[in-house]
Amino acid sequence: MSRVSVVIPNWNGAELLSALLPSLSAQEHPVDRVIVVDNGSSDNSADVARRAGARVLELGRNAGFSAAVNRGIRECGTEWIVILNNDVELSLGWLGALIERAEATGAWFASGKLLLASQRDRLDGTFDAVCKGACSWRCGSGRRDAPLWNRERAVHFVPFTAALFRAELFESVGLLDEAFESYLEDVDFGFRCALRGLAGIYVPTAVAYHRGSATLGRWHPDTVYRMARNQLFLVARHYPAGWIRQFGWHVLVAQGLWGFLAARHGAGWAFIRGKLAGLRQFRKMRSPGPCAVTAILEQSEREILDLQRAGGFDAYWRMYFALT
Question: Which of 50, 63, 239, 284 supports an S-S bond with 243, CB 3.0-4.6 Å?
Answer without folding.
Answer: 239
